[in-house]
Structure formats: structure tokens, C-alpha cells
């Protein structure tokens, strides 16, 4: 079967610039596609973060004309490669739009520090109109004729519209099909109608059936015009067709359900595998997990200045400290966890209200609670390896990666059964324990009580039924959520829309 040719467009790519899980997908999926015999390239903006990444970067000599309203802006293109691969990463340069991020001043890829905290750049809409149009102009210069352009999240949502409405009849574009992945439907890129003036798209597309949704909506553009729409888990694909999770687009998605699917993100086992993780105190496999994992637990307790108590259950959490991630119900249940004799360790960054509450919890319980406010890659690995249970009680979770890391590290995750968490974690019911299928612990109702009761049940196994708990650990570590599995599913989707057998 002939390999596919795919151009992946994303606003961030792991190793170059990252704010969330989108970057992980944009880096790992093209590499996995290439390993499977396909031709893949990536295109992203040339941020300052890319320069700081340390990856070799070269000029291509390509200069693109990018129409923006009544002007045409020149755009130079640079090139790098995904680490340890031959997959090119094309970098779209335009200094006024993309060379503004600076960690010293709190300016990020999409936001800057304002009086009330972080706020979006006022010109984000214009910035990503430019990026989408530049991607379309780049297509003839990438070295192959793509079968599929794979756009990701609102920042690339105009690409399917440009392909369908502006470029379809141009030489070299007629056979290209588009896939659009919704990583988190809560972020839609909605801007005043006037932004249409920059796009060059026909004004009549601004209507409730196409581009209009509380303004000019990038995400809706991707959903309406792409040949295939997918999200990052089958359960989330169903959830976003409901009023609870659809953020106003549930009607549209229900009407277009025939082109909507869910594919669970892969887990990068090159970087997240206790068998060869350089960040942890002792490496381990399913064969020696119960001998070596306790060394990781002791290291975790030391790093967070907690008593090194081998039999005290450690509940770990690595998350953005925002309402979506369940930090509110975690804090509400925290005293109950302490009363159950647990230690709690939280690593993350987010809303100040949660920073303050975590700080207060630690101040009150300095020997029982450890926190690190911010993100630290090494500590994230240490928490995954050293915890006994991993807390991930998300209000909603399109896919989630940390629960997959936890499975691999033999740290059974405690999750709310939503989105990708429902698709990747098998609840330790008596039936699933008997069948040796259980990989973690899950609950349905989004309450602190439900979370507390689920942890309490997990501790029953941990303390009173250690054979069952160990079986959960071994079963969890045996799961395969690799990118090869996800890439195969994307290949099937690409072949379906492109007609390539």
C-alpha cells in the first residue's frame, strides 16, 4: 500500500514551542506517520521560543507573498527537523506577529501579562489569519504534493476554508483533502466580523451556517469546511455533540456527525517510560516494579520535604491549576485525603485562587502536603514514578496524557469518566478486578464526595487487598497507548477522505 503525504499545520510543536497537549500531538504524530512509511512535514510559526529551543535552523530561500486585506506581506520561511527524525518543520517568519514571546516579561505565544493576570493578545485573530494564509502559500514549496493537510485547533481553522473556497482550483491544490482536529472545543477563536476583511474569503461566508458563531469563528470554519473532523478521543467526540460539552457548537456537530470521529492521542514512550527514564531515582519494568518503585517514592518524598514513609499512600497530581482539571474538587476533598492518612503532592501552574488555596493547605499541613507552583519537566517524571495514585478528576478532558503516563509508570490513575479518561482507564470494579482488566479508578459525578469515595476504595485495595492492587499496577503497565496505534487510525482517516486505498 502506497504511503500517504501529509502536511501537519499547528500553532505549536513540542521541542520548539509548547503551551499544552496540542504541541505533543503536532510533534509526535508526524514522526509516527514517517516511521510507518508515510511522507510528513510540519508547519508552525517562527516564535522566539523556536530560536531558544537550540534546534538547528536553516534558511530555505523561500519568500511567500501573504495577502492580508488590501496588502500583501512578505514572509520568509525557515526549516528545522523534528528531533531524531528526517521530518521537516517549516517555520513561518513574520517578526511583528510571532517574535514577541519572552518568559522574562511574561509574554507567551498567545497571551501577555495584564493588570488582571494573563490576557490574550489583541491581534491574535490577525496573527492566525496570516499564519493560515501563509500555510496555503507554502504548499507548493514543501517538496511533495500533499494528499492531506491536517489542521489543528482554532489557530489553523481557516486552512480548510481557504482550501475549499480560495485555492481549490489552483494547480497543485485540486486533489488535496483536509482534516481538522479539535483538541479542546472550549477555545474557538471568535473575533469581530471586521476580521473577515483580512482573510480574502468571500463575505457571504459570514452566516450562521458557515463562519458566524459569536463573531467570526475560526474553529467553526475548520469544522464546516474540513473533509474530516476529529477530536482526540471517541468519548469526547460524543460529548461535544451535547449541550454540556459543546460550547454552543453541539448543534453543528450533531448535523455533521457523519464526518466526526475520535482518535485517542498517543503516548510518547520514548520520553515517558520508567524502564529508561533518566529523571527518576530507579528505573523499573513490570518485572521489578515493586522492588524499584519504592525508591522513586522515597525520592519524591525527599524532594518535597515530606517524611519518607514507605507505607503512607502518596497522591500525586500534575496539572494546569484551572477549573477544567478538577483542582477545585481536589482541594475540597483534600482534608478527607489527609484524614485517610495520605500525603498529597501537586505540581502545576494556573489560576491564582488555586495557588493560594494550595499554599494555605501546605502551610497548615507541612509534613503531609507538597506543592510546586510552576512547571518542571524533571519533577513531573518524579511525581509520576513516585506516587501511589495519580489524581486526574477533570471536569472535562478531551484526551489527556498524564493518565497514560501514569498507566505506564504503574501509578493507577483516579479519573472522572469523561472524554479520553473514560476511553483509556478501566475502573477497578469487582468484576474488572476478577477479569484482570482494571487499570485505575474512575467515577462519574463531578463532586468532591465522588472523588473522595473513589480514593477511599483505591486505598482499600492498597492497604487491605495488596494482591488486587498489584494486579491493577501490572495491568496498567501492560497497556499500549503508543503513537503507532494512533498514527494507524489517522492513516485510515486520511485514506478515507483522499480515496487512496
Quantity of strands, as a count:
19
Class from secondary-structure proportions:
alpha/beta
Give the fraction of residues assigned to helices.
25-40%
Per CATH, the class of the largest domain reads: Alpha Beta
* CATH homology-level superfamily of the largest domain: Glycogen Phosphorylase B
Question: Main β-sheet: number of strands, strand sense, barrel status?
Answer: 9 strands, mixed
Distance between the amino and carboxyl termini: 7 Å
User: Which CATH architecture of the largest domain would you pick?
Assistant: 3-Layer(aba) Sandwich
Number of helices: 19
Uncertain runs are: none
Given the C-alpha coordinates, what overall shape results? globular
Domain Starch synthase catalytic: 5-254
Keywords: Glycogen biosynthesis, Glycosyltransferase, Transferase
EC number: 2.4.1.21
Enzyme class: transferase
Quick synopsis:
The chain has 501 residues and is α/β, with parallel strands linked by helices. The protein contains 19 helices and 19 strands.
Structure description:
This protein has helices at 21-35, 48-52, 95-98, 124-138, 158-165, 196-199, 218-225, 234-239, 250-255, 289-303, 327-339, 352-364, 377-386, 402-408, 419-424, 430-434, 448-464, 466-477, 483-498, and strands at 5-9, 39-45, 58-68, 71-81, 88-93, 111-114, 117-120, 148-152, 177-182, 190-191, 216-217, 228-231, 260-262, 314-321, 343-350, 369-373, 389-392, 413-416, 441-443. With 501 residues, the protein is an alpha/beta fold. Helix 4 packs across helix 5, helix 10 (289-303) packs across helix 13 and helix 11 packs across helix 17 (448-464). The longest helix has 17 residues, at 448-464. It holds the Pfam family Glyco_transf_5. Keywords: Glycogen biosynthesis, Glycosyltransferase, Transferase. InterPro entries: Glyco_trans_1 (IPR001296), GS/SS (IPR011835), Starch_synth_cat_dom (IPR013534). Belongs to the glycosyltransferase 1 family. Bacterial/plant glycogen synthase subfamily.
